[in-house]
Design goal:
heterodimer; A: 502 residues; alpha/beta; 15 helices; 37% helix; B: 95 residues; mainly alpha; two-stranded antiparallel ribbon; 4% strand; flat
Chain lengths: 502, 95
């Protein structure tokens, strides 16, 4: 197998065995990027010189006797996460020339673990979108079929992982932006519990929903990446002081061997899923779902049952309202967060007239159509006379959506559903109808509204050869639980071993 | 919920967004359709439900009040579109 196709844990084992160096591994991945990224277009910025310097430093640390699961491992970072001295555009013209003076906490943690940062991946502008078509620069192409979208907004990260242009990547998930592209690109994507991972240095979109997540080739790699970035950060007052991602779970989860994740290179062998209660929510098999997606996900549920899990139906009665609730709360928070782009302190400035004219011209020209649409929607929902009917109403229904999950997790340990109602759609197919695009996220939004955790992993392909994602949803701080069930599923199947031909 | 052109202009003003005539027409139609779709939220009786602003349990977050080195002035100003005498330079706010 080519080095660029290795998983993180395989590469780590072979780095330790001195089969190759971090520099050789990094060179192999950079060569892969040179060979395929003209077609895939996953990266907005490449940093080969910095990457090779970091790889050399990793080799020196290893020679000095040091080891971490990420020492010398090449990774990619979504371009909404600040990187010191490296442009961070958020896929927007308004930040085209912005070079952050600091690293996001998650980037700092990857660097401290000795990871090699290859570059910054494409995203819908300010992470607002489901296809990367809202990037101001270009659209990323799905490695399984270059005429289709990779999903979004972390589509650059998902496509890079699927195409072997990195061993793993960071993304962000406000309404499904890690899980949906993971599903469409046939990789594993994990959105942690709100508060599990620091948001310091993540350019804010919707602050009560945003969370940094990971994209990887298999479940073990996703666990390794989460372990590296999770934990309390004094710079983010919403990050939870629960230690690493597995240490805080000891009392809340009762799935089998609790020490399985201590050896973070592997999740250990599957002990089967005896005693695990899996809920299948009726409301997630929505009208308009692609029949192959439904059939494949139901077959995956049968695999879990075959491993000993107890499968039962659960109800999440307010699921239908998640879309309007999300598309009122997220734009409302975005309209406040994006007020900072005023042409004064950083990046773009347009117009030299009065101050107010400068604000309007800068924002009018600097933001793309979807960002302006959401700022307008959010401003309206917060404006005098409409606040109660829209924003406050949405916050109240958010309470009901969260209560649905609380009740379901009284009955079951995890919830299993499709990640996306369809496989990857064609580039251009949904750009004229924002509401149709919003429906791409209909099965992932509620998890963010409830602040809980979810992942997507490959569970099959449709007749066109496009990957289908299986979503596993856990309660707050239930990461170990969903990773364990996902690992058992992966152990029983071989979907995660498929790679696109490029 | 159908938005008028005046409402679109009012919201754009609140959000400090310069919009062309074409954009105003586009957003008038699209936002009206979106809000119409969202009207079904009103079906739910939420009289007795409290709003959720955050999913985290409310608690005080304290830290030691110790001075730390700030970002350098040069580092911050490096991203500014216009500077003068070590400060951000902006168009006149008053006539």
């Amino acid at each position: 197998m080519e080095l660029c196709q290795l998983t993180i844990h395989e590469a780590h084992r072979r780095l330790v065995a001195e089969e190759f160096t971090a520099v050789e591994l990094t060179e192999a991945v950079l060569e892969r990027i040179m060979a395929v990224d003209n077609d895939v277009k996953a990266y907005l910025t490449l940093t080969p010189e910095e990457a090779l310097a970091q790889a050399r430093a990793a080799d020196e640390r290893r020679a000095a006797g040091e080891d971490t699961p990420l020492l010398g491992i090449p990774l990619a970072v979504k371009d909404v996460l600040c990187t010191e001295g490296i442009p961070t555009t958020c896929g927007s013209r308004i930040l085209e020339d912005f070079v952050p003076p600091y690293d996001a906490t998650v980037v700092e943690r990857l660097k401290a673990a000795g990871a090699v940062i290859l570059g910054k991946t494409n995203t819908d502008e300010f992470a607002m979108g489901s296809s990367t078509e809202n990037s101001a620069f270009f659209t990323t192409h799905n490695p399984w079929d270059l005429s289709r979208v990779p999903g979004g907004s972390s589509g650059g990260s998902a496509a890079a992982v699927a195409a072997g242009e990195t061993l793993g990547a960071l993304g962000t998930d406000t309404g499904g932006s890690v899980r949906q592209p993971a599903a469409l690109c046939g990789v594993v994507g994990l959105k942690p519990t709100y508060g599990r991972v620091s948001r310091y240095g993540l350019v804010a979109f919707a602050s009560s929903l945003d969370q940094v997540g990971v994209l990887a080739k298999d479940v073990t790699d996703a666990a390794i990446l989460l372990e590296a970035i999770a934990g309390y950060d004094p710079c983010d007052s919403t990050s939870m002081d629960v230690g690493g991602y597995n240490s805080g779970l000891q009392d809340s989860n009762g799935l089998g061997d609790k020490n399985g994740l201590q050896d973070s290179n592997r999740l250990g062998d599957s002990n089967g899923l005896a005693g695990v209660r899996v809920g299948v929510p009726t409301e997630y098999f929505v009208e308009g779902i692609q029949p192959e997606v439904e059939a494949t996900v139901r077959a995956a549920v049968d695999v879990l049952a075959g491993l000993g899990a107890e499968v039962m139906e659960v109800r999440l009665p307010h699921t239908d309202y998640a879309l309007p609730v999300y598309y009122l709360i997220a734009p409302a928070e975005a309209s406040a967060n994006l007020a900072r782009y005023d042409g004064v302190r950083y990046a773009l400035r347009v117009g030299g007239g009065g101050l107010d004219e400068m604000y309007k011209a800068t924002r009018g020209q600097g933001f793309g159509p979807e960002v302006k649409r959401r700022i307008m929607l959010g401003t309206y929902a917060l404006s005098a006379g409409y606040y109660d009917a829209y924003y406050l109403k949405a916050q109240k229904v958010r309470t009901l959506i969260k209560a649905d999950f609380d009740a379901a997790f009284e009955q079951v340990d995890i919830i299993v559903a499709p990640t996306s109602p369809t496989t990857a759609f064609r580039i251009g197919e949904r750009t004229d109808d924002p509401l149709q695009m919003y429906l791409s996220d209909v099965l992932t939004l509620a998890v963010n509204l409830a602040g809980i955790c979810g992942l997507s992993l490959p569970c099959g392909f449709d007749a066109e050869g496009l990957p289908i994602g299986l979503q596993m949803i856990g309660p707050a701080l239930g990461e170990e639980r969903i990773l364990r069930v996902a690992y058992a599923y992966e152990w029983a199947t071989d979907w995660h071993l498929r790679r696109p031909t490029l | 919920m159908k938005l008028s052109r005046e409402e679109v202009q009012h919201i754009a003003g609140l959000a400090r967004l310069a919009l062309s005539d074409e954009e105003q027409a586009l957003y008038q139609g699209q936002l009206s359709a979106i809000l119409e779709h969202f009207a079904r939220l009103q079906e739910l009786d939420t009289e007795a439900i409290s709003p959720t602003a955050t999913t985290l349990p409310l608690r005080n977050v304290m830290r030691a009040d110790e001075p730390r080195p700030p970002f350098s002035r040069e580092g911050i100003l490096a991203n500014a579109p216009a500077i003068e005498k070590g400060c951000f330079k902006v168009p006149a706010a008053l006539e």
